[in-house]
Structures are given as C-alpha cells and as structure tokens.
From TrEMBL:
Keyword Phosphoprotein assigned: no
Role played: Catalyzes the formation of 6,7-dimethyl-8-ribityllumazine by condensation of 5-amino-6-(D-ribitylamino)uracil with 3,4-dihydroxy-2-butanone 4-phosphate. This is the penultimate step in the biosynthesis of riboflavin.
Protein name (Swiss-Prot/TrEMBL): 6,7-dimethyl-8-ribityllumazine synthase
Protein's organism: Candida tenuis (strain ATCC 10573 / BCRC 21748 / CBS 615 / JCM 9827 / NBRC 10315 / NRRL Y-1498 / VKM Y-70) (Yeast)
GO cellular component, one term: mitochondrial intermembrane space
Keywords annotated in UniProt: Riboflavin biosynthesis, Transferase
The EC number(s) this enzyme carries: 2.5.1.78
Pathway: Cofactor biosynthesis; riboflavin biosynthesis; riboflavin from 2-hydroxy-3-oxobutyl phosphate and 5-amino-6-(D-ribitylamino)uracil: step 1/2
Subunit structure: Homopentamer.
Keyword Transferase tagged: yes
C-alpha cells in the first residue's frame, strides 16, 4: 500500500521566527530517530533556525502528553515560549489490549493539550499494527511522516498569527 504525506500546502510558510519543540519517546529507537530527523529536517527547510528547535526525550509514548505539557511550561517560565510542539512516539500492536488503551489515552490527551496550552500540538504518534508499517511510515522504506509533522507545526504556528 502506498503511503502519502501531507499533500499540497495552501501557501509557503516561513518558520524563521518560530521556536518549535520536539519531544520524543525512546521506545522503537530506529523508527523514532528517523521520525525526529524527518521533522527536524523539514523544520529547518521551512526556515526554523536550528537553535530554535528544542529536542528532548522521555521514556515512552504514554508519557508524551504530560511531557509535552511540562516542556511547554518549562520554556514559558524561561521566557522562551514554544510556538508549537511535536510529540513523537510509536505504538505497535502486540498480543494484548495494551496497544488500544495507550493509543486511545495518548490520542485524546494530545488533542486536549492543543486547547489547554493554546498552541499547536501536532499528533506525531504512529499507531501501527506491525513493525513493517511503522518502518514504512518512518521513512525506512516509505514516506517519512516526521516531515509532515514538521510542516504542520510551521503552518499551524504561523497561519493564524
């Protein structure tokens, strides 16, 4: 099955004045590293200065919502607020219900953070049935969705200013 990305954007967005956070889980290291690289590369391509891309890690995808909130608050307190955050994780179905519960909880909390933090929180969590699906979506044999998340962060952080 072909995997496509974001598609056409409605205009070119300039990220040169943005500060973007990338918070990633450490589970599924090879896949995560590829997604983070895809997001980082797209952010810099769209003008975000490398020193304005903050990358931090946490243990797993379940911790992404709380970690995202903490990351946002940390930089607010430092007087360097983030314009958008991309929480990146990978959940791969196993033989128990664990996958469904984590996917549901993380998805709902990331959506809620958009409103609670009043800034774009891009849904950078792969929810895949197999390792191969995750690898394909991480650019390890297919399209890297990290690039789409980087583009979405710049668009959402600049579009409604």
């Amino acid at each position: 099955m072909a995997i496509h990305g974001l598609g056409e954007v409605d205009q070119q967005y300039d990220g040169s004045e943005l500060r973007i956070g990338i918070l990633h889980a450490r589970w599924n290291k090879e896949i995560i590293e590829s997604l983070v690289k895809g997001a980082h590369d797209k952010l810099t391509e769209l003008g975000v200065k490398p020193e304005n891309i903050i990358v931090e890690s946490i243990p797993g995808s379940f911790e992404l919502p709380f970690g995202t909130k903490q990351l946002s608050e940390k930089y607010e307190k430092l007087g360097k607020p983030l314009d958008a955050i991309i929480p990146i994780g990978v959940l791969i179905k196993g033989s128990t219900m664990h996958f469904e519960y984590i996917c549901d909880a993380v998805s709902k909390q990331i959506m809620t953070l958009n409103f609670d933090l009043n800034k774009p929180i891009i849904f950078g969590v792969l929810t895949c049935l197999t390792d191969e699906q995750a690898r394909q979506r991480a650019g390890l044999g297919g399209h890297n969705h990290g690039a789409d998340w980087g583009a979405a962060a710049v668009e959402m952080a600049t579009k409604f200013r």
